[in-house]
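Reviewers of the previous submission asked for a worked example of the structure-prediction workflow described in the proposal, so we include one complete record here. The input consisted solely of the amino acid sequence. No template or homolog information was supplied to the procedure at any stage.
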Amino acid sequence: MIPLFLYRLGFIIAIPGLVVLFLLRKIKGKESKTRFCERLGYPKLPRPEGKLIWMHGASVGECLSMMPLIHKLLDRDPNLHIMVTSGTVSSADLMAKRLPDRAFHQFIPIDSPWGARHFVRHFHADAVLWFESDFWPNLLASIHAAKIPLVLLNGRISDKSFRRWNRHKWFIRPLLQKFTLALGQSVENMNRLKALGAPVVDCVGNIKYAAPPSPYDAEELANLLKQIGSRHCWCGASTHDNEEEQMADVHLKLKAVMPDVLTICVPRHPPRANDIEKMFVKKNLVVARRSRGEKITPETDVYLADTIGEMGLLYRLAPIVFVGGSLVPFGGQNMLEPMSLARAVVIGPHAFNFREIVQFARENLALIEVADKEVLAATVQALLLSPAKRQELAEKAQITATSEMAVLDRLEECLALRGII
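From that input alone, the workflow returned the following structure tokens.
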């Protein structure tokens, strides 16, 4: 209890700074101006009648990974409602488009003692499913105090976090003990959760394997493919700061060999698009911006796809996909979706957040790992010039990515046996 007391005391002391921080976030568009009351723990929506399951994911990736489970649980119980919470405007916008009937989105409250308590009491869910590792002490304590079953799904403790939490078990142990059940996304993560203090642990597999391909507009796909025509084309998806500049250098190397090459750049954070465009232009590259409705012409070097929720469309445009967050030490982004769509997938050396998936793909020769931008350029060039090699890699990728779809059935059985659902 002492660590939680200290956390709450620190929160109260930090209130003036937090007010300034969130005002700045609202000005920058990182907070919803019309729904900010939800962030304070005072939602406008009433609690729906009947059984309610609350699912929480930090941002877009976690929210997408829960979609198959949402559909499965709603199909299982026609009287069930599901509330999804997240903390980003982009994830809220995406959930508004993707959530089915009887499911709705709310912003996760700022972790104040009073806001967390009011939010939990207002909705009083029958169970809470918490995705991965977005731990908020006051919210977890309020859920536990309300005697609501709390399950950690797809729990992941990175190497860095494990080292840090091992030094501060006095803080992490009381948080993990709030969970009725902690499911690691791998045996290694399950063991780490147990070592850090989770009382009941298990592993049914990585839920990300159950994600279906993202939806797309078939007419728009046909339109874009017509614009691309027979050009050599590759895509850099979910890229982070400094990766776009490396992509520009790769494009220039490719263009020296294949003058018609087109690079599709999909930044992880679209608000960075203005700076990314300036960088491309500075390197004398012709850019077309998707957010401005600009078409791909024969003169276009880079198609900058600075929109949200269109990965299902964009992955289908290019036969080769470099998955970002991996040429820089961020930890990588989820490579399973382009693999499941039979794309030839390339990653950099820093995909440590997806170590088990990478290892599984490596064993099946289902992706290519590169050390730097020079090797990336050579690899993309080789794949573009060898359709047979590209097709072989893509087929292995698809088989690997879809081989663990049964994880959803195992998860459902696990939750049902424990009376959670």
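The chain has 19 helices and 14 strands. We consider this example representative of the routine output the project will generate in years two and three.
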